[in-house]
Amino acid sequence: MFQRSPVGMAMTDAAGRITAWNEAAVGVLGLSREGALGQPLPAPVPEQAARWAEVLARAAAGEVLNLLEFQFRTPSGRVRDVALSLLPIEGAGLGVIAQDVTERNAPARRAAEAQHRLEVVLEAIPAPIFFKDAAGVYLGCNRAFEAYLGRPRARIVGLGVHEVAPPELAEIYRHADDALLAAGGTQVYETQVRWADGALREVVFSKATFLGEDGKVAGLVGSILDITERKRAEQALRASEQKFRAAFDQAKVGLVLLGRGARFVEMNPAFREMLGRSDEALRRLRLADVLHPDDLAAGMASYESLVAGERDHASSLRRVLREDGALRYVRIGASAIRDAEGAFEAVVAVIEDVTEKELATQALRESEARASLAGRLASLGTLAAGVAHEINNPLAYVVANLDFVRGALTAAEGSEVRQALEDAAEGAARVSRIVQDLKGFARVDDAVARVDLVRVLRSAANLARAEVKRRARLEVDLPPLPRVAGSTARLGQVFLNLLVNAAQAIPEGDPEAHEVRLRAWASAKQVMVEVSDTGTGIDPAIRHRIFDPFFTTKPVGIGTGLGLAISHQIVTAAGGTIEVESAPGRGATFRVTLPASAENDAVSAA
């Protein structure tokens, strides 16, 4: 029975050496089958050595000890829970009964281990954590909660909130606890707590109820999250945003945020006023919707380069259109905004209205150009007067001698010689007319007078004929016309410029295939003059710019971009209008309308 018993048994002598043992004791106490006899009883795990020594001493003194639990390590290394009974045997030693209770103790051990892990976790959490029963009495807490209250756990457990918190705050906490315990579940709210050092902190309380064995709410567990710094940061951020918004809204220059697709996301009052559009209207638009057509491609390319990260900043002078169609010149400085990973978020642009400054600059350039042109015209007038004087004297001799020779010839002296003299006389007369036309056009005179428009148009045609004949036929259709108010030289400059431009719009090489036509007609109050050509025409994309100062499609050194601008100014100053009709490949027609003089006497075209 001793050997077959499932309960481990062993006997020792008075010196504590094993004198007998059974097989079950091997697995329970970790005995060695080969060398157990004569050896002392195995000791439990080192952590229980002191208690083991005390128990052996009591047994040796004759005390019967029943079911004392120890842990023994088996030869395989496993630790077993063993319930020991030590029975003193008079005159012999001890009888040892050892029962393995490892499986019986497993649930309790796991619960103890879980409890230990929970305690370790709670102690490691820096936020204060506490437990209360259904009456609001503290059941426990972690070290952080001790630090928060400034008292040890022993002076917290068993007390209510009114005994550990300031009165003004304790009432708030108790009211919240009662509401949670009554409703169950969880509770989160912001409030204030006074730390042990006296500092008042902003916190978030997070609480949840737990149930007892009867399934009813048995208490609550709560944690305190200090959000004081976060609240301060939020307040600082709000203050910063308010300052930014105030600066944004009060800025005298336009400030704009452009999102994806160059859409208007945010804009300040200065920009809205600049474009004459409401905030709602702008939010429906893109940058492309307000840029001048001629600046559209360059403006969008600049935006896309910022989005793509090809450059960090862009600065440019652009033209934008107000809602009423008015044109404004703006100086734009733009930069891209990116997030922490470098992804595009928006483009921020500072936009300054420089319309008045730009118009003043253009006016200065035009004034300088007109002054330069006036200087050249004055020099040309002086030169023309001198040339006319030098040519007229010898030309008078030539004409007089031709007339003398023609008068001296009789009809019988040969028609060929007479015809040659007639041709020479006609050539001399033409030279005389060209000199007179040159003197008239070169004279700079801004005085308003009643102008013989037929004579002006004839003179312009004569001076332009050499330029036109290399490219086209020049057709002139001039009926009698009323006089107009203006300057002979200035109006001559207009029509000469239109005729030369018409000729230059036609390629050289086939003059018979092309035509430049000068025609005029009159109504009761107006005189209309048209200069048309069969040249290349004007691209519709640039037609609206042809009267802009310094705009030209001619190569550098050929055109200044001032001819049509000055012509437009001269005609407008005379109370008239100048318009153009054109289609690519089908030539162009410029139409000048001038008011007839009050003294409406027609001038013959002869």
From TrEMBL:
Keywords: Kinase, Phosphoprotein, Transferase. Coiled coil: none annotated. Residues 187-239, 314-366 form the PAC domain. It comes from the Bacteria. SUPFAM superfamilies: ATPase domain of HSP90 chaperone/DNA topoisomerase II/histidine kinase, Homodimeric domain of signal transducing histidine kinase, PYP-like sensor domain (PAS domain). InterPro entries: HATPase_C_sf (IPR036890), HATPase_dom (IPR003594), His_kinase_dom (IPR005467), HisK_dim/P_dom (IPR003661), HisK_dim/P_sf (IPR036097), PAC (IPR001610), PAS (IPR000014), PAS-assoc_C (IPR000700). Residues 386-598 form the Histidine kinase domain. Its EC number is 2.7.13.3. Pfam families: HATPase_c, HisKA, PAS_4. It catalyses: ATP + protein L-histidine = ADP + protein N-phospho-L-histidine. Residues 1-63, 114-184, 240-310 form the PAS domain. This is histidine kinase. It comes from Anaeromyxobacter paludicola.
